[in-house]
Amino acid sequence: MPAEWEKHEATWLGWPHNPGDWPGKLDTIRWVYGEIVRKLAMGETVRLLVRNQAEEKRARLVLRAAHADPGRVKFVVHPTNRGWMRDSGPIFVRRKSPQGGMRQQRPETAIVHFHFNAWAKYRDWQKDRRVPETAAKLLRKRLFHAQCNGKDFVIEGGGIEVNGRGTLLTTEECYLARKIQVRNPGLGRKDIEETLKQYLGATNILWLVAGPAGDDTHGHIDDICRFVNPRTVVLIRETNRQDINYRPLAENWDRIKDLRLEDGSRPEVVPLPMPAPLHFGNYRLPASYANFYISNAAVLVPTFNDPNDRIALGTLSELFKDRPVVGIHAVDLVLGFGTLHCLTQQQPMGQT
User: What total number of domains does the chain contain?
Assistant: First the structure.
């Protein structure tokens, strides 16, 4: 699985339509999407899933008003339950270039189907699960159905993070839980590691502990720790000892000291702050600067009207020298329990 910062052919998005994801804010969220698509389309194609032609027509009006490049937006008519493409969308892998002889100009890419089941939490996932099949048919790509011990193997794209060199990050809270949101009942650490290696080409699996409070996914890595280059990660840190997130995030900092990359070296670890707590009613929302998305044209970073916005943007600007770092207002977006990375899924170029 290529790293996210490698060249994209496209980014996949699902047009927002489920009012339960953003209570009372759905129209606002569509305008946020317009800004996201405008930024993405500056550097790559955006493949935008819509439920029907009427929804496509409405989406075109928003994108036109947002001044998104219409030539870079390709609509894909496909019904969805929610449309969080990081988790239900196509996860792409690329065949390694052959050793010796004639080098392929565009090594083959394919899609792995990880059998999305709404984070083992909700009942309405059947439409979302078919997205990888639709993508494979549309793009004429091979589709590999992930299996372990003869059963469908379930993960989400937000639960894994790769450096494109063989190392994969995930969390124990998400995939080793025995009672809460269990994706693969009966499978242990060894089974999960071997299956990830088989289908994603990973050689080195690293486990952090847990994510921030309010995470509807129960521990997705993309709210916690992200690669910014093959040897460097950013890791969120809570400095307020009274905050509910302080202890689990501190455990991640303790754990990462012992982790090694695929070549045995230590990763460089750069801290990212946490914004002040955000709530919707009695719910703590999983606001995290780690949920950024690396597109061809820019790194899109969620911001929360918080003093730490500036620190997070500055930190990431120092780490990404090859493209601008841009903030996207996400106070409304995070009502859906996710932000920019959760919404997007990259389609890598075939060539290295």
Answer: 1
Quick check: 327 and 340 in contact, CB under 8 A?
A: no
Q: Residue 26 above 50 pLDDT?
A: yes
Chain position carrying tokens 């730490």: 308
Whether 330 contacts 287, CB under 8 Å: yes
- Cβ distance 39 to 295 under 8 Å? yes
Residues 6 or more apart whose Cβ sits within 8 Å of residue 177: 218, 219
Angle at 352 (CA atoms; ends 115, 43), nearest 5 degrees: 80
Catalytic: 342? yes
Whether 49 and 84 have beta carbons less than 8 Å apart is answered as no
- The confidence score (pLDDT) of residue 350 equals 81
Quick check: is 59 in a domain?
A: yes
276 in any annotated domain? yes
Strand partners, 303: 329
Domain annotation covers residue 320: no
Q: Determine which one of 148, 174, 225, 342 is catalytic.
A: 342
Residue 226 is given by DSSP the state E
Using an 8 Å Cβ cutoff, are 84 and 342 in contact? yes
d(CA 42, CA 154): 33
pLDDT at 70: 96
Q: What is the DSSP string of 90-158?
A: PEEEEPPPPSSSSPPSS--EEEEE----GGGT-S--HHHHTHHHHHHHHHT-EEEE-EETTEE----GG
**Predicted confidence (pLDDT) per residue in 223-266, tens digit:** 999 999 999 999 999 999 999 999 999 999 999 999 999 999 99
- Per the CB < 8 A criterion, the answer to whether 258 and 209 are in contact is no
Tokens of 147: 């299996």
**CA 105/CA 71 separation, integer angstroms:** 26
* In contact, 70 and 60? CB cutoff 8 Å: yes
Would the pTM of this model clear 0.85, i.e. be above it?
yes
In a domain, 227, yes or no: yes
- Parent domain of 47: 8-98+105-305+326-348
Please give the Cα distance from 300 to 150 (Å, whole number): 39
